[in-house]
């Protein structure tokens, strides 16, 4: 029976290039890294709550190295990968793992059901998968600004994102047991649209759409900045939201 290939929404080459640029930008003392810091802290809290002490762990996407360092300190053998060294849409070598963690990565693959299935297959019996992504409730102020920049014929510039309901269905489709999807909101204040864009680039979270839109012109950028700053508070700061969606599933 013939299978249909998933649509090519994201470019893996652009993902890798963005991550490489983010690592260079992290050399600056004021570089942002709060998304991964939040995700790492959340994963460690979850492992402590369920009292899981895995022996073999695969960590995908944590370019800070913090999660691996903490797990190794607890005696785990940890392998670390990112989009450059591991293709999540292909079978994962080195299995079985007691724990597979993916951070800010799965929302940028074209075949998300397949990637989740590969992660499940990489688990040992009763192994645990935790995947944290930037969810559908994220960046409402940026989305308004982008729409205002090109009111007549807007180009595709922002990623389609996964919501709670879709994530639950994906875990079921990948045959995880005892699956749970939950979310929390991380709120960050910005003094300008440019600072928000810079923070996203610092963290490798810029656009990696396969069909890259042309750069915004000067007038469009001015419209975007004006729309963004319309929601500023009395201190001249715009509160932007990141919904951190966490998918958790056990194998058998």
Briefly, what is this?
GO terms for molecular function: methyltransferase activity. The protein is α/β, with parallel strands linked by helices.
Characterize the structure shown:
Strand 3 (97-103), helix 4 and strand 4 (123-134) form a beta-alpha-beta unit. With 252 residues, this protein is an alpha/beta fold. Helix 5 packs antiparallel against helix 8. The chain has a single domain, classed as Rossmann fold (3-Layer(aba) Sandwich), CATH 3.40.50.150. The longest helix is centred in the N-terminal third of the chain and has 17 residues, at 34-50. The chain starts with 11 loop residues before the first helix and ends with a strand. The protein is 36% helix and 22% strand.
Main β-sheet, spatial strand arrangement: 2-1-3-4-6-5
In CATH terms, what is the fold-level topology? Answer: Rossmann fold
Radius of gyration: 19 Å
Morphology: globular
Q: What pattern of helices and strands is seen along the backbone?
A: HHEHEEHEHHEHHE
Distance between the termini: 28 Å
The total of helices stands at 8
- The mean pLDDT is 95
Q: Return the domain count.
A: 1
Q: Report the strand count.
A: 6
Low-confidence stretches: none
Proportion of strand residues: 15-25%
State the helicity in percent bands: 25-40%
For CATH, the homologous superfamily is named as Vaccinia Virus protein VP39
* Secondary structural class: alpha/beta
What is the architecture at the second tier of CATH? 3-Layer(aba) Sandwich
Task: Give the biggest sheet.
Answer: 6 strands, mixed
Query: What is the highest CATH level, the class?
Result: Alpha Beta
GO biological process, one term: methylation
GO molecular function: methyltransferase activity
Pfam family, one: Methyltransf_23
Protein name: Methyltransferase
